[in-house]
What we know:
The structure is a homodimer of 292-residue chains. The first copy, chain A, is an all-alpha fold. Chain A has one domain: Farnesyl Diphosphate Synthase (Orthogonal Bundle). The first copy, chain A, has 14 helices and two strands, in the order ααααββαααααααααα. At the A-B interface, α2, α6, α7 and α8 of A face α2, α6, α7 and α8 of B.
Amino acid sequence: xxxxxxxxxxxxxxxxxxxxxxxxxxxxxxxxxxxxxxxxxxxxxxxxxxxxxxxxxxxxxxxxxxxxxxxxxxxxxxxxxxxxxxxxxxxxxxxxxxxxxxxxxxxxxxxxxxxxxxxxxxxxxxxxxxxxxxxxxxxxxxxxxxxxxxxxxxxxxxxxxxxxxxxxxxxxxxxxxxxxxxxxxxxxxxxxxxxxxxxxxxxxxxxxxxxxxxxxxxxxxxxxxxxxxxxxxxxxxxxxxxxxxxxxxxxxxxxxxxxxxxxxxxxxxxxxxxxxxxxxxxxxxxxxxxxx
Amino acid sequence: xxxxxxxxxxxxxxxxxxxxxxxxxxxxxxxxxxxxxxxxxxxxxxxxxxxxxxxxxxxxxxxxxxxxxxxxxxxxxxxxxxxxxxxxxxxxxxxxxxxxxxxxxxxxxxxxxxxxxxxxxxxxxxxxxxxxxxxxxxxxxxxxxxxxxxxxxxxxxxxxxxxxxxxxxxxxxxxxxxxxxxxxxxxxxxxxxxxxxxxxxxxxxxxxxxxxxxxxxxxxxxxxxxxxxxxxxxxxxxxxxxxxxxxxxxxxxxxxxxxxxxxxxxxxxxxxxxxxxxxxxxxxxxxxxxxx
Lengths: 292, 292
């Protein structure tokens, strides 16, 4: 199988599991909530984070099928954070992945609740999976760490505060490491933890996740200025228009491209000691070149 | 020690642990987020849910000190749900426990994030506690179940939808069991799970929690009409003013009082087989009589 075929197969596994888990139910009166959760969860993302969970699990000799709920849980957590980020009181975005944002379709109240419920379901999904209890606890702890005050929430808080001031590069790096990097890193670690991998494997996963996260965010800032709105599926130049500091305003296009390459090389090298790391290495390289 | 002294001692344990865990930190730039979390978390609630965790743990022969993080985690989850319930897009409340609501003080954006972070921290706190991994996983799973689609979020979704229609008694009972009962029941079960208790003890805890939750909510509806604003620390008669169905509009004061007694008796009887259940029994009785 080519890299693209392998990636598509992984994405299909995730898609199928999520479709199954979030079917409408006959026994409840709150299908409206479930529908709002499903709308954003099944809006066709790249499923990058679940793919990382599954591939790190495979590279550590784990049972990939048993890790599938863990992988999908990371996507639930990610989707919740996107729904809340888009809210009028946050980024106030109307468009996400080329579709109206959750609150535009279901209203703010339901969007807040859909995000809240997706966060809880992410933990429930891991904690009721068929993995041994110690692996369930370890995976859920890694997710909680990424989701909490020091991770996504702290990062988003800084991002909102950011609008009123110019940031230094270390401040922006810290913000992005929390807001975006923490969950990517957690996804990689959770793949190792689901497989019952070694501390050395977990360190390799963390290093890969951190590097991919850094490259990802710099590439994002480049695309935000360089790509077309149709390619991105969301308004372009919005950060610049808001006067926000980005890696592009700090470094310019040339240094950004060099940093993306540097972080990507670090990611490739971080996993070189794992079994069959080719997919993860090609994935890192493909993210560095992505156009949307 | 009298019941009141025991209760005060438990509450002080919880208060002390939370104070310690949510201290301002020198190493971060997002103390504003931490401050908003602390504001609502340390606003002086009754700490009913953590007390239930600790007491069920004790009645099952568990290590109460080791269960303290689990108890405090339930309060974090409860506090998050209150912050989000108060948001302008939900109940739009200005006052909670006699103080301005979180978004009134910190703004909507920070209030949403403070709630989001408190949910994540609740799970993180359980999952990184000193309990054995299987007990951590079991406690966190019970919390996730109560917090998710079928629990608090489903209940709050129904509560918001409720405003536009009249509910039957079974609909209102279902709504309240999800919105309020689920977390009270989870708190009781988590005490047993933290102690490594038996399935029979867990069933007793669930029955107690369900009955206390039902009595609690009916009593709440009674107080909402009968108590003064100063006693409750929040606007009175707000449900009635919104035309919402409550247990008072369905049943009237007399039948409500009879139901509170019935559920309270059920709670008292549910735990009669546990070791030294006096505290839990007195607690159920005291909740039935509460005036705020």
